[in-house]
Specification:
It is found in: Membrane. The protein is an all-alpha fold and 160 residues long. 72% of the residues lie in helices and 0% in strands.
Length: 160
């Protein structure tokens, strides 16, 4: 029996078709989104197990948003749906997540004394750094895009 990869045939359909391509996982954006998803999930679990369970909604929403954008970028939905300005949406998500994680991490570390709250706070500070790196890099891409758009001269916009 021949190996299908050696022949060049496509892999059989199944769960492996849901995995993102390797080149996306090796990209900077893929690694940042994966780190954001993992950290948000860990923080969510820590808040569930802690006395600071009222903070669990923010990591859950950030986990779901990061997971959605991970699969949207991996499946190239950003190229198919041009109506959404993906870099701006990603930038706003990262800025708000960094601010929210920083605020709830300070509250969890200073107000609650249980170990799970302290762990959630420490992971929250790490998530703040990851989201800050992501919004810095996304901001640079956004500025490059806006500079590109402003150099185009508007032609044919005159009304008769």
């Amino acid at each position: 029996m021949e190996d299908p990869e050696a022949v060049g045939a496509a892999p059989p359909p199944g769960l492996s078709s849901l995995l993102p391509p390797r080149e996306f996982l090796r990209s900077r954006k893929g690694q940042l989104l994966l780190a954001e998803s993992v950290l948000s999930f860990i923080i969510f679990i820590c808040y569930i197990a802690s006395l600071a369970a009222s903070f669990m909604m923010a990591p859950l929403l950030e986990f779901l948003l990061a997971l959605f954008l991970f699969f949207a970028y991996a499946s190239k939905l950003n190229e198919k749906f041009k109506g959404v300005h993906w870099p701006l949406a990603d930038f706003l998500r990262c800025v708000t997540a960094a601010i929210i994680y920083f605020a709830i991490s300070i509250a969890a570390v200073s107000k609650y004394n249980d170990g799970a709250s302290k762990a959630a706070g420490v992971f929250g500070f790490a998530a703040t750094i990851v989201f800050a790196i992501d919004f810095y890099l996304t901001f640079n891409d956004l500025v490059t895009f806006l500079k590109q758009g402003s150099s185009d001269s508007p032609e044919g916009h005159k009304t008769e």
